[in-house]
Amino acid sequence: MAPSTAPPPLPTLRRLLAQPGLQLRLLTSEQELPAHALDQPVEWVHSSDLADPTPFLSASQVLLTTGTQFADPATDAYYRDYVRRLTARGIACLGFGTEVVRAGTPEALVAACLAEGLTLVEVPYDTPFIAVARAAGDLVAELRYARNTWAQGAQRAISHAALRPDGLSNILSELSRQLGHWVALFDGGGALDRVFPRDAFSGADASPALPQVQAEAGRLLRRGQRAGTTLDEGGETLTLQTLGRQGRLRGVLALGGATELDQASQQVVTSVVALAGLALEQNSAQDRARGHLRSGLLQALLGGELPLVQRISRELWGTLPAEPVRVAVLSPPPERLDALAELLELRVEERPGHLFFARDGRQMLLVVDPAVEPLLTELVGFGLHVGVSDRSDYGALPHAVVQARQALERAHEGAVGIVDFEVISRQGVLAFLARTDASEVGRATLQPLSDHDASHGTALLPTLRVWLEHNGQFGPAATELGVHRHTVRARISHAEQLLGRDLGAFHARADLWAALLAAG
């Protein structure tokens, strides 16, 4: 990772202690403190003699006190509890002002700070607390000015990078250099598109965060809403921001580094998000033009103009998928159609010659070969139902489209997933009746039996079903029902009377079986 061009984000405790004129004396030596204790940032200086000032403090502050809260004599346990409250709050340093209440710093306080790992300094009588606070304020102002100056310079450098060829890549590369973070772009399908530096996820110094970042990017894209998030993973702070408009997300920008982005860095990232989103929107306009061309080619393909479509497709995207092919149909929400088209366009670039797709009204039709059929599972991961035809050649493609649409109708009856037309064809024509408006007709046909069973406690309807399932054989039906075959015969005879049908005829049995399927 190239060194960052940005100054340090906040003044450190070491810099504050080194300010001339303050004459602060470190009572807990650096060797006795936790590693980097003097290099932690200092946000502000606060003074208080309360026994418990922590409700009025925040992390990374310096607390100054004259010690009036320490009763004379205060016990070692009192000092230890006091210091523990400060460390639990995240206080960076405790400064004890001498010669105001007492001479010198209490030894018990020094011991408690050493035991808890809290930096302790002595503030001499000639150094007012306000002088320490003013020095810290000057450092904060100095760093704030430096950060704003750096942010302006970084934004200028990024704007210049946008003017170079392949502006998007140059923008992201410059952002990575300015922040000292790796920067990654994920496409509309959640796949890693590009990363800077290019070895950010490989080599000895590689970030281990790629799986977590990719999973989070996919989650944000599936939501379909503009969003950002920050994660802590493996010692890195990860920042993700979607690109594009709500309902038409173009991708996700991700950054990772050892430090969290401060306000100035966030400003730079925000400008890059706008530039990257604009670049992707421009690419999207080209994609929409290609989408119109694809829709026209689909109609030509369904009309039998295979040579024409092959020639145009070969010049723009590669050859059409080789026969036999399968047709897949999806009906995404209208606001997700553009995002889905972008995802499929990316998959065409990755595997040319294996996928053709086009919009047909509110549906998306895919022509695929076996090499990219796993793509259908990926689409299910975006919450889409998928209907898939049997294998077909291009001459029978219109029939394959009808099959895929019938499979899609079946898919919408259950949870999100893939339904193959083969599943429907195996169940037969009668099974399809249960998914049409024949259900009311079926219930009306069987109502004399269901009403009789309800009012007389009989079992004519279930007996009829079992009897038909056993091809009208009384013995096997009686065995399954656990009754004598003469009982089954009597029930079927009674059913014939109620229905007014001769169940010895094939067409009557077939009609009742269809009614049972339709009624459910």
Concise structural overview:
Residues 35-136 form the Purine catabolism PurC-like domain. It comes from Cryobacterium sinapicolor. The chain is of the alpha/beta class.
Description:
It is a single chain. The chain is an alpha/beta fold and about 525 residues long. It contains 18 helices and 15 strands. It has helices spanning about 15, 75-90, 105-115, 130-160, 165-180, 210-225, 265-300, 305-315, 335-350, 375-380, 395-410, 420-425, 430-435, 440-455, 460-470, 475-480, 485-500, 505-520; strands at about 25, 45, 60-65, 95, 120-125, 180-185, 190-195, 230-235, 235-245, 250-255, 325-330, 355-360, 365-370, 385-390, 420. Helix 7 (about 265-300) packs across helix 9 and helix 16 (about 475-480) packs across helix 17. The longest helix has about 40 residues, at about 265-300. The protein is elongated. The two termini are about 65 Å apart. The mean pLDDT is about 85. InterPro entries: CdaR-like_regulators (IPR051448), PucR_C-HTH_dom (IPR025736), PucR_C-HTH_sf (IPR042070), PucR_dom (IPR012914). It comes from Cryobacterium sinapicolor. This is PucR family transcriptional regulator. Pfam families: HTH_30, PucR.
